[in-house]
Task: inverse folding
C-alpha cells in the first residue's frame, strides 16, 4: 500500500496551475481593451473628420453666399445708379428743351421786331423815332431778352457750343441793328440827314438783318440736332 498520509503537496505545482488558468483570460481582456481603445480612437477621429468636413462645407457655403450677396448688392447699386443717371439725363434734357423753346420764341419775336423796324425806316426815314418810336423800342426790348437768354445758354452749354454760339451771333446781329437805328435822327426843324448817310444806315441794317436770319437758322438746326442726340 502507498503511504499517502505523510506526503505533502507540491506548492509549486499548485501555484503554476492557478496562474496557468488566468493567462487566457488576461489575454482576452487585454485584447478587448485594446480593441475598445482603438474603436474609441477611430470613432473620435471619424467624428473629428466629420466635424471638420462640416466646418469646411459651412465655410464654403458662407463664402459662396456672401459672394452672391455682394454681387447682388453690387448689381442693384449699379442698376440704381443707371436709373438715377437716366432720370438726371431726362431732367436735364427737359430743362434744356424748355430753355431752347424760350430761345426760339425770343428769336421769333426779335425777327418780327427787326422786320417792322426796317419797314418803318423805309416809310419814315429820318423821322422814324418821332413818327414810329415803337419800332425802335421793340428792337431794343427784343435785344434785352436775347441778352438774357444768351447768357443762360452760355452757362448751360458753354459759349462755344453750336447752339449757344449761333444764338449769340443772332443776338449780336440784332444789337448791330439797334445801334444802326440809333444813327437815324432829325433835328427839331425836321432837317433830314444826307441821302448818303441814310444809305449807309440802311445797308448796315440790311447786312445785320441777313446775319440775324442766318444765325437764327443755324440755332434752330443746332438745337434740333442737340435735343435729338440727348434723347437717343
Result:
Amino acid at each position: 500500500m502507498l503511504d499517502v498520509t505523510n506526503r505533502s503537496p507540491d506548492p509549486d505545482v499548485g501555484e503554476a496551475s492557478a496562474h496557468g488558468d488566468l493567462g487566457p483570460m488576461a489575454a482576452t481582456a487585454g485584447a478587448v481593451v485594446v480593441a475598445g481603445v482603438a474603436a474609441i480612437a477611430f470613432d473620435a477621429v471619424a467624428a473629428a473628420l466629420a466635424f471638420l468636413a462640416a466646418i469646411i462645407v459651412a465655410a464654403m457655403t458662407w463664402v459662396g453666399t456672401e459672394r452672391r450677396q455682394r454681387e447682388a448688392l453690387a448689381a442693384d447699386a449699379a442698376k440704381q445708379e443707371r436709373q438715377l443717371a437716366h432720370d438726371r439725363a431726362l431732367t436735364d434734357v427737359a430743362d434744356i428743351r424748355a430753355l431752347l423753346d424760350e430761345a426760339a420764341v425770343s428769336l421769333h419775336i426779335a425777327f418780327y421786331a427787326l422786320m417792322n423796324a426796317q419797314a418803318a425806316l423805309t416809310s419814315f426815314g429820318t423821322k422814324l423815332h418821332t413818327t414810329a418810336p415803337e419800332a425802335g423800342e421793340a428792337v431794343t426790348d427784343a435785344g434785352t431778352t436775347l441778352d438774357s437768354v444768351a447768357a443762360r445758354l452760355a452757362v448751360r452749354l458753354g459759349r462755344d457750343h453750336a447752339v449757344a454760339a449761333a444764338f449769340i451771333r443772332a443776338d449780336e446781329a440784332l444789337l448791330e441793328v439797334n445801334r444802326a437805328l440809333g444813327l437815324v435822327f432829325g433835328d427839331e426843324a425836321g432837317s433830314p440827314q444826307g441821302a448818303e448817310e441814310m444809305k449807309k444806315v440802311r445797308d448796315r441794317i440790311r447786312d445785320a438783318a441777313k446775319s440775324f436770319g442766318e444765325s437764327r437758322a443755324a440755332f434752330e438746326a443746332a438745337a434740333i440736332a442737340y435735343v435729338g442726340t440727348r434723347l437717343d
